[in-house]
Amino acid sequence: MRSADPAGDRPVGRGNQAMTGLRLRGRDREMAAVREALDAVRGGRGACVVVEGAPGVGKSRLLAELDEMARRSGFDVVSVRADELDQYAAGAALQSALQSSGGSERAAAAADDQRLWLLDSITDALEDRAQRAPVAVLVDDAQWADPATLLVFRTLPRRLAASRILWVLAVRSETERPTVARVREDLEALGARWLTLGPLPQQELQHIAADVLGAKPSPGLTRMLRGVAGNPFLAIELVRSFADTDAVKVEAGMASLLYDGIPVGFRRSVAARLDRLPEDAVRLLQIGSVLGREFDLGTAARMLGRQAGSLLSGVEAALNAGLLSGDGPRLAFRHDLIRQAVHENLAPAVRTALHREAADILRGIGARSAEVAWHVVLSGGPVDDDAVTTLTTAVRELSPSAPDAAADLAQQIAGLLPLHDGRRIGLLTDAAEYLGRTRRVHQALDLVDATLSDRLEPLQEARLRLVAAEIHQAAGDDAAAMTHLQQALALPALPADLRVRLLKTKATGHVYLGDLTAAEQTDVGLVEASYRSKDPAVVVSAMVFQSQTFFYRGRLARALELAEEATARAGTGSGLLHLRPPRIPALWLATVLTATDRLADTERVLREGQREAEALALGWSLPHWHASRACALFEQGALDDAAVEAESSLMVADELEITQPNPQARSVLALVEIRRGDLARARDQLRATEAGSGTSTQRFGLWVSLARACLADAEGRDAAAAAALTGSFTDGEPARLLAVPPSHWPGIVRMALRGEDPSLAQAVSGALRTLAARDDSQQIIGTIRAHVDGLLHDDRGALASAVTGYRSTGRRLALAAACEDLGDLVAASGDTTSAIAYFEEAGELASDCGALRDHERIMRRLRQFGVRTGAPRHHTTGAPGWESLTESERKLIPLVVEGLTNRAVADRLYVSVHTVNTHMKHIFTKLGINTRVELTRLAIERGTAADGAD
Q: Which of 426, 577, 584, 886 has a CA between 20 and 30 Å from the CA of residue 164?
């Protein structure tokens, strides 16, 4: 794919003289739709147009008209045109076009998944341009676009809907490429304007003929035009096939045929035109049709065994015949239909041989591996060692930006190799790994199963099973991962480094399955061996594993010490890019901090780690960062911000096509909606969790169980609430409790008592006693224990102690719950004055947190005592409008008015750009607007623009 002015696809310059100045005919309706789209974008709202049609129907010409119209209207136009060779190309041509025309550029890290980096980089460049002028992004021949550019079109029109950007995609209607089909589906769901270019009426074809010939076509020529089925390009070629000979006579303003010797079929028409060319031109066109729509003259000369200079006469003839264009740095067929016609007129055996020869020559001169790969695939094999090396390079270059396309290419290459070739299994293993990063996880696992059915060497099988285990583990299905790991470890003669990786992954799986004893048994000698490793990633991973086992055993101080040491080491190493959740040190450190007295430090650790992950292009980790922030913010009682982070987690997972979004994020959203009082939305979130995760909720199963229980409790189904918790928290060990943050633990006891399940309540209490006995360093554990004892024994003193303890922990919802529990107990004793004070404090805290359902329940209790109550001060879920904006949303508005892009806003507020994206979406929804222009106008009218951001 190359950057292009779409006008360049029109006939301008040598080789295109016959079409210079031709009017666009028969597309008035489509041009009116294009003008509407341009007007909408000038008004501040994004728009998307898809131009679809058969080859030669006029898509490129329509884009050229749009390009000129947009430039005249003051648009900044960025355009690219794809080539058939681009289907295996790494990187995004759209990004290259932006950079070559002065767009901002963010340095890319050498990460194994650069999809989110590409999206963010292009977002930044387009937002920056759209601040200065409306932007039109045009992609022609999108059926061949590189996978990364297609990802951009799937994702950014929705993300940048509020920016002044017009997205236009021209695509052939008959394309069968799956990634293109997904782009079409996503744009259709977004509400893109669809312009299907059908055949032109006969009258318009006659006008086109008159434009080419300079005279009205005769009835005989008009009859021949019916044979092109309304295709304007074919009509022009047909007319030109006569005009280039003496077969047309113009008399009295009418063009007539002298004889009917030219065939109507386009391929035959092109073949007939080739017959009139010198042999050098014919051979050049045939070789060029193999090399692609655009081709290098030097490469064509090598394939012909000639010097480039000796082909000049052939080039001249092809240019003069209007078959080639020489306007750019490479020769190009004037339309791909011409190239296809020449290519298809070659015998199939000749085409195959020429593609194989092209691959060899291109590899020899150091051409792009993607270009070589295209020719090898078209040649159909067999492939030699050098070809396999080049193809494997193409797969690896493609995998960071388009893992799904890399997986498809790897499987195609594997299909060219003999069954016994060991490289075939390596390619299929890579393909499974790449598919595991996409929405096609089930295909990845099917590929693993199919490959395992072959007779594999132990080393091959072990590596393949490790990939399968990591896919399962990333999706949270630790039990399935364990099956593969156990079978892999039973294989003989495995290298030491592979065995260590298998054992580390297995030990981590045991931790998340709650079997700490098995994890510690797996650890025999493993940690010591890891500490001796020269690979810093191995050392850090061992530290995280040790921290996890100490944590779930209840030894929080030691777990925290190891987690901080691992995080510090991770900040100084470059090999840590290969660590994945749950082994990312800072993510794990945040989990530990949330269960300690240092809850306030969690926000700093997560902000710094998340922004570093964005800067290093570790897009695959971002859903986990956002989910962890959501959990920490919920623990602090910041419900609105917790919801935003959970939504951002799901949004990024969707952009990266992660099939199994973190159930933790859905559970947090459900818990937030329960606190807000919107039980219908809470049910929707839990249904989505169940539908999206299938059997893979094990790691976050306790979160899901907790959310289900809280929903049942809110619905008044006390027994169902207790039943939802019974299988999760009854073993009396701290590990289960520590899977969710401490402020949830008293709620579990409360629901158990309401559901008449005292054994569950006692199990939680016993786990707390064990935890306190193993590590008494954390005040929060003692405070939670006092709260639980107060609930179990109606102990006023214990509840009062809990209230005092919570005041210094930063856990506002936990403090509100303790105040309410104490108020209930005090009221039951007849001390209404003290009870009212506790209820009022609980209500104020619930209001500040946005827990509207809690606030309303507490207000009902106060009204029972004759206390007049008011509406909550914090009310962000009611009727839309300015008053429904959260504090975090209000901070963004002055920065938007200032003209900052979302990236600049994120930098100013030191948050993730994806958090800003989610906030902006909420702002637009609440205010009933669609654009930043409207937001700026509203803010200025209200005087909000002068407030500034904190």
A: 886
Contact of 725 with 733, CB cutoff 8 Å: no
Model confidence at 660, in pLDDT bands (50, 70, 90)? low
Q: Cα separation of 429 and 449, whole Å? A: 11
Non-local CB neighbours of 568 within 8 Å, separated by 6+ positions: none
Residue 49: both structure tokens together: 């147009």
Cα–Cα distance measured from residue 403 to residue 405, given in angstroms and rounded to the nearest whole number? 5
Distance CA 231, CA 239 (A): 12
- What is the distance between the alpha carbons of residues 553 and 514, in angstroms, rounded to a whole number? 10
Alpha-carbon distance 594 to 584, whole Å? 16
Q: Which helix (H) or strand (E) holds 937?
A: helix 932-942
- For the record, the structure tokens of 906 come out as 């994120």
Q: Which of 22-36, 130-144, 207-221, 697-711 has the lowest mean pLDDT?
A: 207-221
Q: Is the peptide bond before 582 cis (omega within 30 degrees of 0)?
A: yes
Residue 253 is classified by DSSP as T
Q: d(Cα 134, Cα 718) in Å, to the nearest integer?
A: 57
Place of tokens 């495995």: 494
- Give dist(CA 280, CA 285) in Å, integer: 9
Residues 617-632 have pLDDT tens digits of: 666 788 889 999 999 9
Q: 3-class DSSP state for residue 349?
A: helix
The pLDDT of 349-353, averaged and rounded, is 94
List Cβ neighbours of 931 (8 Å cut-off, separation of 6 or more).
Answer: 43, 44, 45, 46, 162, 163, 164, 924
Classified as helix, coil or strand, 254 is strand
Query: How far is residue 2's CA from residue 296's CA, in Å, rounded to a whole number?
Result: 14
The 10s digit of each residue's pLDDT in 471-483 is 888 777 888 899 9
pTM of the model: 0.76
Q: How far is the C-alpha of 25 from the C-alpha of 22, rounded, in Å?
A: 9
| Cα angle, residue 389 at apex, residues 385 and 393 outer, rounded to 5° | 165
Tokens linked to 96: 């290259």
> From CA 683, how far away is CA 670, in angstroms rounded?
7
Q: Judge whether residue 227 has pLDDT over 90.
A: no
Amino acid identity, residue 406?
Answer: A
